[in-house]
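Aim 2, interim progress. The first record below pairs a target sequence with its structure tokens.
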Amino acid sequence: MDNYNEDIGTINSWTLETCEANAVTNSTLTNNIMDVGTGATYTVVQSDVEATSVGSTALQQQFMVTSLPEKGTVKLQNVALAIGDTFTQDDINNSKIAYTNSSSVSTTDSFNVDITNATGGFLASQQINFNIDTALALDDAFFTKTGISVFPTVSNGNFNVKSQSYTGKTEIELYNISGQRVYKTNLNFNSLGLKQVNVKQLSSGVYILKISSDNLQGSKKIIIK
């Protein structure tokens, strides 16, 4: 209502501000059971556990530990995690999360996490599961001395050999359950790092992985699905 007739004026400037609520998108979790040997350490990889959502990067997918495993320890860069501690999907993608158990018998273990992301999404009480199998136990003396680890022990034919302290030539051999050598290669760790071994051409089954470096040898069972 204009209370003054015939008044005039000029609008010099004006602004219009609109507000739009950001969409909240909960994360979707790929969560596969991980097989690990008794008394062994398993490095969690992206194909095992992966949280994704629209509008959030791997670094923004945050896992908060809400319960701990009963038979082992979850570690971020070799530091044990406690209830309330966090890690990210980026940590998993870069092989920074590991699970170590102290069991001497075949059993199962798990821990729980809540997952948040950059849009305010919240995925509660997700259980991360491990199957502990005596058949997949590591030769601890060899792996401790060399700093070499192998993961995953159950795969489609792709697995990783990681060196934390050893540098030099490492021989990799695979034998089938009949004792026949079906694969051989050499890896050269000029510096600390991660090497991938691809044996997708092999049939599904159980194999013995033999690793030799200098005068040391170690072996373990792996499964190709």
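The second target in this work package is listed in the same format:
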Amino acid sequence: MKKQLVVFAGLALVVVATATSASLPLAPLSTLGKLKAAPAAGPEGLEGVAIPQVNILAQPQSLKLNETIDGITCQTTEKVAYHIHVHLTVFVDGKQRQVPYGIGIGPPLGGVKNAAGPFVEQGSCFAWLHTHAGDGVIHIESPTQTTYTLGDFFDIWGQKLSRSQVGPAKGKVTVLYDGKVWTGDPRAIPLVSEAQIQLEVGTPLVAPQTIVFPSGLAASVTKK
């Protein structure tokens, strides 16, 4: 079963924020040398994106209604005046780890599922950065147009992120950003529309695993 994201009423089109490659600390992918081939994609989840059938990296922390982290609040409804999506992939020692569903959504969680995994539709609150499924898609649904960072997302997740740690996994962290090597602080990575981010702890390093954003997740979402 496939499921389209719901289009809510009464909200206007927003302009999607972007960051140019020239303004970011990026190096060519070739600087990493030979890379291990990316694994085959898992079965398609209810957002139209593959869900890797592997262990999760770490459980989300439980958020409470009106709890605020890094200026990001968990509220009763999703604030979709500004609505974009980012894809995050994680590898530890060359093995993929799943970014779990329910990050940034307060319990109890409710929703639907298919053979690939659940899709969360209900919770006691929704932070402006959250995940509905275990497919690595980060939903940025904010009351204002703001460029959030990967550090913000990990703080909402309740996990550490640095040059030497991703969640519970410790070691040298290599970051791929839209097919290039991010050389700056991983926490500073901007979450812009359709960015594809890959975090790798240790070795072997894995080639970029990318997705094609389905129509319901691509670019900005117009609310009429």
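The two ends are 26 Å apart (CA to CA). This observation will shape the mutagenesis plan for the next reporting period.
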